[in-house]
Write a structure and sequence with these properties.
There is one protein chain. This protein is α/β, with parallel strands linked by helices and 230 residues long. Helix content is 33%, strand content 27%. The strands form two sheets. Strands 6-7-8-3-9-10 form a six-stranded mixed sheet, sandwiched between helices. The protein has a four-stranded antiparallel sheet with strand order 2-1-4-5, with helices on one face. Helix 4 crosses helix 5 and helix 5 packs parallel to helix 6 (176-193). The longest helix is centred in the last third of the chain and has 18 residues, at 176-193. The chain binds adenosine-5'-triphosphate and magnesium ion.
Length: 230
């Protein structure tokens, strides 16, 4: 990586779904702690770009670095190590419904190689406190509102101190007020922890409340935009 603060670097990247070219000449740099939105009409390639960054779509064309990983060299053996540097948040909350919040987080620590029970409990304390959910530690996911579940998902994303959070429509299933609350939380995290946050969203109202860099997918590529409605 050229610069120690760079967490994403794409040079002349082309992104495909199967054989179909979705985005071309993608150039993008994201630095530590940056808060960046990814906007664009439906089907323009937002999810495809995010998937490329977390290794779910292989990089064929161009140069791509994420959290010091060369995306061209990310295969199934490397993906778990890349994912440990990333926090990934989706629209559907993706908690395991058959176990408590604490057990969801313990499971996530377990599969990422944590073994010391005391350290695991301490880490869970910290991330739940960061998202204001420590009181719900023993609750089951179905006892939580959508916004509360998404807070827990964000806590889970924070467990391994990611350098980058990738969120694909994290507020897609939430009402406007709760959406604002979730974006505010992600914004606070990017400021406090220097974690970069990259959010794919249609939620223009919230963008105006929590300003950040805006990248737009359109016409088969991406561009930086100054004005959302230009
Ligand atoms: N698994 C897939 N196989 C083949 N084509 C796909 C696949 N997923 C997406 N595509 C196509 O890739 C293009 C970009 O889709 P993508 O999901 O990245 O868009 P998006 O900007 O995230 O849209 P939305 O706002 O609806 O989530 C679309 O034309 C879509 O049909
Ligand atoms: Mg999408």
């Amino acid at each position: 990586m050229n610069h120690p603060n760079t967490v994403v670097e794409l040079h002349n990247v082309s992104i495909f779904q199967k054989e179909k070219l979705i985005l071309k000449k993608v150039n993008l740099q994201i630095q530590k702690g940056e808060f960046v939105y990814l906007v664009g009409k439906t089907g323009t390639g937002k999810s495809s770009l995010l998937k490329t960054l977390y290794g779910a779509i292989p990089l064929k064309d161009g140069i791509g670095l994420v959290a010091d990983f060369d995306l061209k060299k990310v295969d199934w053996k490397v993906i778990p190590f890349l994912r440990r540097k990333l926090g990934i948040v989706f629209q559907d909350f993706q908690l395991l419904m058959d176990r408590s919040i604490e057990d969801n987080l313990l499971f996530a620590l377990d599969v990422t190689g944590w073994t010391n029970k005391q350290e695991m409990q301490q880490r869970i304390d910290i991330v739940l406190t960061n998202v204001g959910m420590q009181k719900k530690r023993k609750s089951m996911p179905y006892q939580l509102s959508g916004g509360e579940q998404q807070r827990v998902v964000i806590a889970r994303a924070l467990l391994n101190n990611p350098v980058l959070i990738l969120a694909d429509e994290p507020t897609g299933n939430l009402d406007p007020e709760t959406s604002e609350d979730i974006i505010s939380l992600l914004n606070m995290i990017s400021q406090k922890t220097e974690t970069a946050v990259f959010i794919g969203t249609h939620d223009y109202y919230t963008i105006t409340k929590f300003p950040g860099r805006i990248i737009k997918c359109a016409n088969g590529s991406i561009q930086e935009v100054e004005e959302l409605f230009s």
